[in-house]
Amino acid sequence: MTPLNAKIQEVFSEPACGINQGKSEKERKKGCAKQLQPGGAAGGCAFDGAKIALQPFTDVAHLVHGPIACEGNSWDNRGARSSGSALWRTGFTTDMNETDIVFGGEKRLYKAIKEIGEKYDPAAIFVYQTCVPAMIGDDINVVCKAASEKFGRPVIPVNAPGFVGPKNLGNKLAGEALLDHVIGTAEPDYVTPYDINIIGEYNLAGELWQVKPLLDELGIRILSCISGDGKYQEAAYSHRAKAAMMVCSKAMINVARKMNERYEIPFFEGSFYGIGDTSEALREISRLLISRGAPEELMARTEALIAREEAKAYAAIVPFRYRLEGKRVLLITGGVKSWSVVAALQEAGLKIVGTSVKKSTKEDKERIKQIMGEVAHMIEDMTPREMYKMLREARADIMLSGGRSQFVALKAAMPWLDINQERHHAYMGYDGMVELVRQIEKSLYNPIWLQVRRPAPWDGEGRIAKLGMAMAAE
Amino acid sequence: MAIVSQVKKSCTVNPLKMSQPLGGALAFMGVCNTMPLLHGSQGCTSFGLVLLVRHFKEAIPLQTTAMSEVATVLGGYENVEQAILNIYKRTSPDLIGICSTGVTEIKGDDVDGFIKVFRKNHPDFINFPLIAVSTPDFSGAFQDGWEKTVTRIIETIAPMPSGRRAETRVNVLPGCHMTPGDLDALRQIFEDFGLEPSFLPDLSGSLDGHIPDDFTPTTLGGISVDEIGKMGRAVWTIAIGAQMRTAAEALERISNVPFRVFERLCGLVANDEFFAFLAEISGQPVPQKYRRQRSQLVDAMLDGHFHTGGCKLAIGAEPDLLFDVGSLLHDMGMELVAVVTTTASPVLDRLPTEEVLIGDLEDLESRAKVRGAEFLITNAHGRQMVARLKLPFFRIGLPIFDRLGAAHIVTVGYQGTRDLIFAIANMLIAHREVHHDVNQASWCPTMEQESL
Ligand code: SF4
After folding, report:
1. Ligand 1 pocket: which of A52, A70, A136, A140 to mutate (most atoms <8 Å of CB)?
2. Which residue has the CA at smallest separation from atom 4 of ligand 1?
C-alpha cells in the first residue's frame, strides 16, 4: 500500500467520527463517500477540499503542482478574509506542460519552490498534489523535504490529488498534512490559561471577526485558528493551546482528535451559527478552559456576556418578526450549518419547510426532527428540477443555499440567499444571526418579486394576450 | 511588429490561462439541448462549473465521467459508457459532447475508440450524436479548446453540400472572445442585410441570461444539431477571430462553402471591411442605420482621443481578444507597454507593440509597474494587481466574476466600438478626477500661502 493510500485508510477509519462508529470494519474501508456516478453533476475533488481547508492561512504561498486546470480554473474564488498578508490569494502553480509529463515534474516543482521563496519570501510554502503528477509518479514528499532543507523554509506537502475522492476527504488529508509537518514544530512566546484553538473555521466574509471581540472581552485568546485568517507560525505552536473548538461538522475532526491524543487538548464540536449555538459554544470553551486550570470566575463572566448578547440579539430580531411570521424557507446546504441556523430563523417567525440532509449523520437527522418537527421535509438528494418545481409552485417563499443552486431559485423568480462559501455577508455569532434575518427580510420584501413574476403583455394572462383571445372568440 | 516570447520560469503566478477542456465545454454549450461532459475526475468539472457560473450568472450544464484513481489506471471506457447512458436517461439531450482532460490523456484513453465500441454495444445509439474532442489540460489554453471543439463538431456532424445553395444563408463561426451580446449585435447586422446567419456555436441563445419557462438540465437555446447539418447550404462562412480559421477550412473542405476570416470586428477600419463585405455578398446597400452608426463612431473617436491618446496600456487576454481590443486601443492612440497572452497564435506578432509575452498576470504586473502603465485591461483576476498598482481597470474576457453583465459587453460593429470607446474614456476620466485632478492648490501652489 502506498503511503497515500495508507493515509486515506486511516482517515476513513477515523474513530471520533459518529458515522464511522456505526459502520462495520468492511464498510469503513470503503470510505465516507458514495462512489460518484459517471454522468452526474460533480462536487469538488479532494484537492479542492484540501485547498479550502488550508488556503485561509494568510502568510503561506499555496503552490499547486499540476497542469493549468486545477489552479488556473479556480484561483481567487474563495471567500475567506485576511487581516494581514494577501499572499494567500496569489495563485501559484507549476502549470505542467507536455515536457514535464514526459520527463516528470519534480524538477519544475523544485525550481518553482525556489522562485517563490526568492520573490515572495513566504512564512511557508504548501505544495498541493493533483491528479496528473500523482499519475506520473512525482513524489512531492521528497521534493518538499529536499527544498525545506535546502532553502531553510518550511515546505509542506499536501497529498490530496483530486481523484482519490471528494472534498471532505481532502479536508481531512489537509488536516493530516498539518499534523505530520506543522503542528508542534514551534513554541509560542508565552502561554496563558485562556489559549484556545479553533479548528475548521475559514473566516468567510470575515465573520470570525464578529465573534473574536466576544472572546477578547472574556480574555480568551485564539492561539491558532485553523485556518481562517491564520498564520503559519500560529498553527506550528497550536499544540500549546489549553482547549479546542472544532467548527464545521466533521471536516477536520482528525486534527482535533489527534491533537487531543498527542497533546491532551480537550475539544468539543460546536458552531457559531445561531444564537443558541453561539452561547453554547462560548460556555463550552469556558468550561474546557476551567477544566484545564483557568479560574472558575470565567464562567460567571461568560454567562453574563451571553445573557447580555442574547437579549440584544433577540431584541434586534423582534422587529422583523411580524414581517417574517409564517414565511416558508427551503434550506439547502451541507450538514450541520442547517440546524445551527434553524433556531434563529424560527425565532424570527420563519417556518422551515424543507432542508437537505445529504451530508447529515443519523444524529443530525434526529436533531432536525426535534427542532423542526415532523412536518419539515428532509431532502436526501433533490434534483435542481425538483427544487425549481417546489419554488415555482410556491411551496416555499425563499431558498437559502450555496451559490451553485442559486439559479434554480432565481429562474423561478423566487428570493434566494447565499449562505455558503461565496456570500458577502457575515452570519456568525449574535450579530451575524441578526444580519441573516435582516437579509432575509430585505430579500423577501424587495419590490422586484411582484414585477418579475408579471407575465409579459403578450403572454398568458398579459393584456395583449387576453385581447387576442377575446378577438379570437368574437 | 511584436516579438513573441514565452516566459522562462518554473512557477506560474496568478494565471491568465484557463484550461482547454473548459473552452471546449463552453463551445458545446452553444449547441441546443446539449450536455457537455468532461472525461476526467470530478474536480475538473466542478471547478469549470463554478467558474462559468460565476461569469455568466447562469446555471451551467456540465457533467463528469467521475474517474476515480482506480478507474484512471484501468482506463475509462466503462465510465464513459455509464456517463452517456445516465445522461441520456436523465436529460435526453440531442448531443453529448465529450472533452478529455489531463488525467485521461495521460492514461491514453481513446474516446473516439470508446464511442465506436459503445455504439456496437448499444445499437440504439448508432445515430445518436456523440462528439469527442482531445483537450489535454497540459497543453494549449481555453481558446484552443474552443477552436478544436468547433472544428470537431463540423467534422462530425458533417454538413453535406446540398444540390442547391440558399442564397441568403451564411454561416458564422464566432471565436470564444465573442460574448452573447456580440452575437446578438452581429445577428442584427446580418439580418439587416437580408442575410440569414447560422451561428456555431451560438451562446446568444443559451447563455444570454434569459428566464426560461421550465428548468432544463441541458443547454437552453443555441444552434440545433439539425441546423448544423444544414450549414453546407450556405453561400458564405464568416469566421470571427483567427482561431476560427481551422473550423472554417474544415467546413469548406466538407461542404465547399467559401469562407472569409475577420480577425477584428472592433474598430473603424475593421468594420468598414466587414460592412463592405456584407454589402457585396448580399447585394444590398449598407442600410442607413449603419451609415449613421459609422459617423457616430467617428465622432466618438474624435471625442475619445483626448483621453486615450498617449495612455500607456497594460493588457492581458487570450490572443484573439487581445488582438481585437488591443489593436483598437492602439488605433485610439494608446501605447501598448505591457502585453501578455495565453497561447500561441498567428495574430500575435502583428500586434502593434514591441513584445508579446505568453505568460501570466505576474508578468503583466511587473511589466506594467516598470513601464509605468496607466491603464489595465484584463479579466477579473486583474483585481489583485490593480489594488496594488492603483490603476483604472477595465474588465474583458473570461472570467468576470465580480461585475454584472459580462455576457452583454459588446465590442463588435460600429456601435459596439463606439460604446467601448466611451466606456474606456469615461473610466479614464473618472480615475483622473479622483486621483490627479488639478485644483487651485495644485495648479498654483503658492495661493494658499498668499491668502493667509
Ligand atoms: S480532479 Fe484532479 S485534475 Fe481535476 S481539478 Fe481536481 S486535482 Fe485537478
Report:
1. A70
2. B44
Cα separation of A41 and B35, whole Å?
A: 11
CA distance B383 to B338: 16
Shortest Cα distance from B54 to chain A (angstroms)? 9
Taking contacts as CB-CB distances below 8 angstroms, the residues of chain A near B54 are 77, 403, 422
Query: Is there a single domain that holds both residue B32 and residue B150?
Result: yes
Output the residue whose Cα is nearest ligand 1's atom 7. A162
b/e code B83-113 from CB counts within 10 Å (16+ = b): bbebbbebbebbbbbbbbbbbbbbbebbbee
Number of structural domains, chain B? 3
Same domain, B177 and B275: yes
Chain A CB contacts of B58 below 8 Å: 407
Same domain flag for B145 and B35: yes
Do B339 and B250 sit in the same domain of this protein? no
Residues of chain B contacting A413 with CB distance shorter than 8 Å = 211
A111: CB partners within 8 A, 6+ apart: B10, B11
User: Quick one: which H or E segment has residue A99?
Assistant: helix A98-103
Angle between helices A167-181 and A253-263 (to 10 degrees): 30
The nearest CA of chain B is from the CA of A146 a distance in Å of: 17
CB contact (8 A) between residue B138 and residue A163 = no
Domain A318-453 sits in CATH at: 3.40.50.12380
Residue B433 falls within a domain, yes or no? no
At which of B289, B317, B347 does a domain end?
A: B289
How far, in Å, CA of A73 to CA of B17, rounded?
Answer: 8
Superfamily of domain A3-181: Nitrogenase molybdenum iron protein domain (3.40.50.1980)
Cβ-defined contact of A92 to B46 (cutoff 8 Å): no
Report the CATH number at residue B121. 3.40.50.1980
Query: With a cut of 0.85, is the ipTM above it?
Result: yes
Q: How far is A245 from chain B (nearest CA, A)?
A: 30
Q: First CA to last CA across chain B, in angstroms?
A: 57
Residue whose CA lies nearest to ligand 1 atom number 2: A162
Does the beta carbon of A45 sit less than 6 angstroms from any atom of ligand 1? yes
Q: How far is CA A176 from the centre of its chain?
A: 17
- Could A411 and B212 be called an inter-chain contact, meaning their C-beta atoms sit closer than 8 Å? yes
Amino acid occupying residue B333? G
> Between chains, do B18 and A93 touch, taking CB under 8 Å as contact?
no
Q: Is the CB of B44 under 6 A from ligand 1?
A: yes
In a domain, B73, yes or no: yes
Q: Which of A122, A145, A317 is nearest to A233 (CA)?
A: A122
- Host domain of residue B229: 169-289
What are the residue boundaries of the structural domains of chain A, listed by start? 3-181, 195-312, 318-453
Considering the domain architecture, whether residues B236 and B319 belong to the same structural domain is answered as: no
- pLDDT tens per residue, chain A (474 residues)? 577 877 877 777 776 655 555 555 555 555 555 567 787 767 889 999 999 999 999 999 999 999 999 999 999 888 889 988 999 999 999 999 999 999 999 999 999 999 999 999 999 999 999 999 999 999 999 999 999 999 999 999 999 999 999 998 999 999 999 999 999 999 999 999 999 999 998 898 888 999 999 999 999 999 999 999 999 999 999 999 999 999 866 688 999 999 999 999 999 998 888 888 899 999 999 999 999 999 999 999 999 999 999 999 999 998 898 899 999 988 877 554 556 677 778 878 888 887 776 666 676 677 667 766 665 666 666 677 777 777 777 678 998 887 777 777 887 888 988 876 556 778 889 999 899 899 999 999 999 988 988 888 887 766 665 555 555 544
Q: Strand A351-356 relative to strand A377-379: parallel, antiparallel, unpaired?
A: parallel
Does the domain at residues A195-312 carry the CATH identifier 3.40.50.12380? yes
CB A39 within 8 A of CB B85: yes
pTM score, whole prediction = 0.91
Question: What is the spatial distance between Cα A276 and Cα A270, in angstroms, rounded to a whole number?
Answer: 11
Whether B28 and B141 share a structural domain: yes
